[in-house]
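pasting input
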Amino acid sequence: MKRVIAVLSLLVVASLMLAACAPASGTSGEEGASVKTIKIASQSPLSGGQSGVGVDIKNGAALALEQLGGPLAEMGYKVELAPFDDQANPDNGVANAKQIVSDPAILCVVGHYNSGVQIPSSEEYHSAGLANVSPANTNPRVTDRGYLEVNRIVGRDDVQGVVGANFAQSQGIKSVFIVHDKTAYGQGVAEFFKQQAEANGMEVLGFEGTEEKANFDALTGSIMAAQPDMVYFGGMFDQSGVLFKQAREKGYMGVFMGPDGQDSSELVNIAGPALLDGGGMFYSTVSGPASVYPGTAKFISDFKTKFGADPQPFAAQAYDSMAICLKAIENAAKESGSETPTREAVTKAVRALKDFPGITGTFTFNGVGDPQTAQYFVIQVKSSDPAKWGENAVVQTLDIAPPSK
Amino acid sequence: MSKISQLLNNFMQKIGQGYTPYFITLLHIVIGASLVYASPRSTISFLFLLVAMAEIYYFKMRTEFKIIAVIILMLGIMPILGLRNIFYLEVIFQISVFSALALGLNIVVGFAGLLNLGYAAFYAVGAYLWGFFGSQQFYLLHETPGTAPVGTPFFLPQDYFYLFLILGAIVAALIGLLLGLPVLRVRGDYLAIVTLGFGEVIRVLANNLDKPLNLTNGPQGITPIQRPSLSPEVLDGFNSLFNGLIGRKVSEGELYNVFFYILSLLIIAVIILIARNLEDSKIGRAWTAIREDETAAIAMGIPLVKMKLAAFAVGASFAGTMGVLVAASRTFVSPESFSFMQSIGVLTMVILGGVGSIPGVILGAAVVTILNLQILQGFSLYLSELRQSDAVIPLINFAWRDLSTQLDPAKYQRLLFGLILILMMIFRPAGLIPAERRKRQPAETKSE
Amino acid sequence: MKRFLETINVRELLQPLAQMILFSLGSGAVLSVIVILLALLLDQTAAGQFLLERNKVTILTYTLVNLPQVVLDGLTIGFVYAAIALGYTMVYGVLEFINFAHSEIFAVGAFVGVEFLILLKSFEIIPATSLFMSYLWLIAAILAAMFVAGLLAVSVERIAYRPLRGAPRLVPLISAIGVSFFLQDAIRLIESLTTGQFHRIIPSFGNFDERLVFSKIALGASTIELGIQVKSIIVIVAAMLMLIGLNYLVNATKVGRAIRAVAQDRSTASLMGIDVNRIISLTFLIGGTLGGAAGVLYALKFTRIDPFVGFFPGLKAFTAAVLGGIGNLTGALLGGIVLGMLETFAGAYMSAFTMGAAGAEYKDIFAFSILILVLIFRPHGLMGENVTQKA
């Protein structure tokens, strides 16, 4: 009797599963060849604590496909976005990558928020010759492997940290206290900021990592005791906003600074006037503010209309990554004539793009897939009103090429 | 209701007799395999083929036949099919890895009744062990994370990997002992929280031990990690043997997929053997005694602490070995893989499948992994496809396009895990396939 | 009026207050002595030299000047932990069961309170209101959070725990873990359906962000302000009120006696005519409301909340409860204060004492190591009775 129940429950589970995937797999495989469907995959954490940024990476890509998919549609292709959830976990990232690789309709991948997921997953893209444009992975190792398939449109940690430290020096900063968020991104930027700051003769009064999201009392205490000219935060706005607010509340009046993870109107939403008091708040970014790039302003308003909230950091980069994928596929499709372009052709077309105008910059990739010269802005927060985030002022503009090995 | 079950019972008995099961199973495998071969991207045919494994388990057939059928299916047919769609190899690879983890946790939770919420820590120990010795990390002890000089040599030759499969088990077991020695004196639910804390401690250590000595490279993770060598002759040999069936030349990267797939199956086979033998051994019975009633167990002269320690060590060793395997197959380890979520995921597998039941736990691992990798993801992809089309939901005339993306099932993995845990605890605490011992109770003779 | 006053057991009101002051002063003093001794020890070593070179002060001055602020900060977070720990300890005292989902009840409370305030802001009621009204609105937010969180806690008990009463110990615990995960994503789903984002920021209003500065102390070339924020005072006062109220309820009322009776012996209590199920529901209600209030206080103090906000505070509050002796109300208070202090001390001084080799990033490990150590060497906690074997 019990055996029957066991078999039954097993059958129920199995049939549920079958029912669940029936539609999903039915449409994808066979149709691809006849209607000429092209897919572009996105991979980012859609669930869990990092899904705030991850979902907006997907949304940014979706918006780009909607707005820029026209040329390919005219050529008779149906372009679809296939969003994957890597859960910020390498195991899921790699499994998804294998699923992506095994779908011949997928010609390009916009992806990954965590370098820790991108690095193992891109091994799969590499062995399948599938182009990957990364909107957010700043770790040097991402491109240092020299894979033809892997490109990114964001600055490297070892560049952005340098930009920050050089800017600090130009402002006459003598001492810094560095905090980072213990992620590959935050710590990476912070380490390179520290190196450059020391090379520039600044005093590094502290270098601390923290996974804390709320209670920074211990850290603000150390900052108050050290009284640095500047506090540099390597990480995302959701932590730094709280840290900056608490530091000001303790009476710290120096300068705040951070990398492009700070580029979100949510930052002022959290920290409010704390960003304007004292020495103010600066951030370095490759994504120009609305005042410089009209495309950015349009992107923000379009994004808000479609998804009902301001884009998180890296949504604009995801938009550009998708735009690059679309452009490369279009170029490859023109060459291949009536044939659907191959992955190899798309991969080469991505690398061959010259001065592609995106909303976060103009892109040409170098031999390893870094943007040839990226334009970096140092921007100062000008208003404590989140709606006026786009009016932040550019203080410095730098063109920097990635370090060559 | 009882009539239906009686009918089913009769039906099951009918097809469970004579040569029928052999015939059904073989037919199933042949049909399944050809389905997958014909449409390599169809999830249905893949799952249909996998169900054959359940048949092999349930039908009354000669053990020799079962073993041969499994070997042919998993080592013969599957790799060929997998090379037509590499994703399937990955799915089964992950099922094996998580089965091993679940079997290890099952020894601790199911056999000995000690709830361990930090089990991913032992997995991390194995992964970082080979991650450290199998990479260049030894020469980067004084470098800042992310600034590895070009051309740093590897510390150990790549084939030390095989040795580390065993070393991983030993070291993880030692760590298990170290943790177990002090904490096993606390009782059940306290133990759960202590192990949770321990799991977090290991993860935070992995995240922070990039200074003063750069042991783990911090959040950047260690990469590249070496894989065992595959000589070109193996690749050539493989290609000349199977070229016809696969229809193209297999690259080295793909062959590694097959290699790790087979290796994971071999390891899981060994682990199942160990777990089964332990279950019926003197130690296994002592564990059961402890689980059912600690006081009575002490009264029977069972060395409580020793036995609990043994459970901890054996459970940890499974995870250690799999850690080494995964580190090599990914060529990368980072602290993100060893979060609390991972521990809960493994616990869900054990609970769903059946605490204390070896086949149950494997089923649990398979169901959760497939759910996680294929079903939820597939559903979300399908929804996203619908959203990008002009289709409308019939009857209520609601355009798919307007459906909020917030409702994607793939985003609510935790919700699903939570629901599974609650529902299983309330309605079927023994799991999908309850442990054998519960069936062996004398009451059974009455009911049948 | 006089008669009413007579029915109040003044002793039960004053005793916890005295205990709180004693614990705060005591743990502050003990830890201060420890760090000062450490500083004296390290003064002549490399660590001292390192600090002298970097911050131009001796390690002893550094320690002394920072000390008052560290104690104040530690106290604030300590009271937050204590308020959450009450929920764990209440339920554990009665059912001997770790309510793993309490951290999510806490998070739900935080969200309800913050959403309430956001709603007020959207109607432009705050921040443009008098100071008195700001406090009233804050209290209203806390009450709303208490109501919802309490209700949720009771329903969770009804649905996910009650059917499992009498099952082996691990069964309800696993169910509680399930509830915890379920609620995290449920909050996320609900919050992101409306705005597309699932984190919330408490609107700033009233004078809560202001900081009262007591004095300024010179440290090397710079000065350090010693002060406390208005919101920290609110957190401490509110937590104190909750503790005193709960203590009174449990120790000086009839309901409290029933709760204690159920905690000691469920079956005997039921024979005495106590409705055990009702008392258990009540326990969850009390734990839930306290958790909900703690959630709003947490949001007020730390500004930003997300659905996963409860996990670490919950774990630490549980540590606090265990540290003090789980099942014991005064113990939860002591545990919370001690843990908050320890953690803040570790975060503030570890970096200076280890020359930057191990800094604030080990703060969380500190809490867990304490948990492990306490359970090993004193499983019944600082104040609890021996509960190691009662299965």
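fyi Residues 79 and 236 of chain C are 6 Å apart (CA to CA).
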